[in-house]
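**Backbone shape codes:**
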Amino acid sequence: MSFLRAARAALAGRSCHSRILVAAVAILGGLSLSCGSSGGNVTSPRNHSAYVTLPANGSVLLVSIDGKTGIISIGAQTPRQEGLSPTGLALLPSRKFLYVVNSFASTISIFNVNSDGTLTLSAAPIPAGSSPNAAIIDPSGQYLLVTNSFFENAEGSISVFSIDSSTGALTPVGSQVLANANPTSILFTHSGKFVYVANPTIGMVTGFSFANGVLSLVPGAPILSGAGAAALAVDGSDQFLYVANPSARNLPPYESTVGNISGFNIDSGTGQLTPITGSPFTSNVGASGPTAIAVAPTGNFVYGATPGSSSSIWCFSITPNTGQLVTATNSPFSLTAGGLFALFDPSGNYFYIGTQTGIAGYTYDPNTGAPTAISGSPFAIGTEPGKMVFSE
């Protein structure tokens, strides 16, 4: 991952010259980088797998991804269990253990990852907070953080667990930490210094500093983002945080468009958020706001995903140094999308969006940001997915 992060930072300048410099670094890590004009082309193709929660089935699905084409193939599925509703999931960097939060059961399932990628439940699920939603592992691989929709006095919380790297066992670290109303999405900066959660019911973002498993509110937290604040993304340099606000109303001349994306500067010392000049940013067309968001590994584009197929993928270029968003040519794109998740594969070549019936996959032009559907997309998986994580 360190090589990919280095590539992200270097590519923010967008020039082929800078990309060649990153290639020299990446080759040391067994990677190669291309200056091609289409299809992402961040690293050489390689096959890999991913895991997808299936809330309605009470199970987790293994999928395989062809590194040359991005095509998804359906693999094994864990046994179905009633009353779980698995949603968020997180994979240990060693790829030995997968953690799945079960929203209805308020538990966390721990799976051993077998050599072929299939999953075996390691033991009985352990207690989580009330109605857990999302999970994330810190960059060091030592801690698992889980957002819980309910805690006390209508507030939500974050649970922190230390991870036994040899057995996968989880041990609570202190008490649950208040995280304002209904925290859902959770995000680490690449440095691991700061954690941010979205609070959709109050349209805000709550930020924390993080050290040795301890969360502390950053100055100014929580900060107003926009109605329905649902998803978070950070640029590769940890300078800017972007938040999808699906229900926000916009000022003229964009009053007919629903939803927008807020941008914030991240103070590198404290983690405090301050609005980027011109924020929030919106599309000139769109009846539905984005509920999923991602930053391209090239570091120069932000994508927002909305349900449906009409004006469904928003794309903005990131202005260097300021973080301001500028609508990409021909955005929004009328392609099959959805607001369940949006993320790039580990190679940076492909972009995947969770739809109401499966997973849509795209290549993207690193110069213009324009997405192009992968052959066979969208890929049906038999039911609506929850969240997705890649085996890197």
